[in-house]
Amino acid sequence: MIRQLLGDPDLLRSHPHFRSAPRTRLYGVERVEAAERSEEFRAASAVAARRSAAARAAALRRRREVLARIAAEPIEVPRLPPERLAALAVEHRNRRDEERVLWRRGHVAAPITLERAESGALDRWKVDYLRHRLTRCDEVLDELYGRTGRAAAEELLRGRIYAAIAKAYPDLARECERRLGDR
């Protein structure tokens, strides 16, 4: 609308903060006010407002579709014997710790055994194992990358996953609640 209604700028100045940025276009206040009083401005504003409302409605529709998909995503948490879950959780923790060596400079893997694991840490590892290995959380979120509503979908999915873990393993409910509270 600026180019359509005002044409060329009255003055070009270098960008005040970034020398490599395009030059700043400056327009006289009188010209701008005159353009805003014109019938052409009112018509262009009405078109822009309709376009903006349509874009908002489309974004809202896409967001609802994403959230509906997440709400319908099946979440199945298998019930494992406590000692088996603990062993798998420690194994998972050790594997992830070894992977950190590849992408975190200076990290030294420190494998741990089930016997040396502290109770609170073991609960965290159990929830991590169940979330990472037994659900499609990351896979589903990767499919939503760049889509409208992804952040809300991630929050909804994580809430559903932690609720399912807490339901299947009541002794992990406190850790699930802690994770939801940290967000």
Radius of gyration over alpha carbons?
A: 27 Å
Summed over residues and divided by their number, the pLDDT gives a mean of 90
In percent, how helical is the residue content?
A: 55-70%
Structural class category: mainly alpha
| Strand order in space, largest sheet | 1-2
SSE order: HEEHHHHHHH
The count of DSSP E runs of length 2 or more, i.e. the number of strands, is 2
Strand content: under 5%
Give a structural overview.
By secondary structure, the protein is mostly helical. It has 2 domains: 2-64, no CATH class; 76-182, no CATH class. Helix content is 66%, strand content 3%. It has 8 helices and 2 strands, in the order H-E-E-H-H-H-H-H-H-H. The chain has helices spanning 2-6, 29-37, 39-72, 82-103, 119-133, 137-143, 150-168, 173-182; strands spanning 11-13, 24-26. It has a two-stranded antiparallel ribbon. Helix 4 crosses helix 5 (119-133). The protein is elongated and about 80 Å long.
Q: What is the element layout, followed by pairings?
A:
Layout: H1 2-6, E1 11-13, E2 24-26, H2 29-37, H3 39-72, H4 82-103, H5 119-133, H6 137-143, H7 150-168, H8 173-182
Antiparallel strand pairs: 1-2
Helix pairs in contact: 3-7, 4-5, 7-8
